[in-house]
Design a protein that fits this description.
This protein has about 80 residues and is an alpha+beta fold. The protein has two helices and three strands. Helix 1 runs antiparallel to helix 2. The radius of gyration is 12 Å and the shape is globular.
């Protein structure tokens, strides 16, 4: 999987998170290690977020797993 493919998977979910006032960003992709680093913000401006960070991680993990089971997700809260 390429970084562009990872970005596409993350951006598809990010649209929904942003619509609720949160944020989701691909922070980086290590092609050698097959690790996608993704940052989220559900606290500061997300008034109506329906996902918890754990649920968001599961959703992202499932989306990436469907497209590239070899990619590992590292999810962390964005610093505001």
């Amino acid at each position: 999987m390429t970084e562009a493919q990872v970005r596409t998977a993350v951006d598809a979910i990010a649209m929904s998170v942003r619509a609720d006032g949160g944020d989701l960003q691909l922070l980086g992709y290590d092609d050698e290690r097959k690790v996608a680093r993704v940052g989220y913000d559900l606290d500061s401006s997300c008034d109506v977020c329906v996902l918890t960070p754990d649920q968001l991680g599961q959703l992202l993990g499932t989306a990436l797993e469907r497209q590239a089971p070899e990619v590992t997700l590292e999810l962390s809260q964005l610093e505001t």
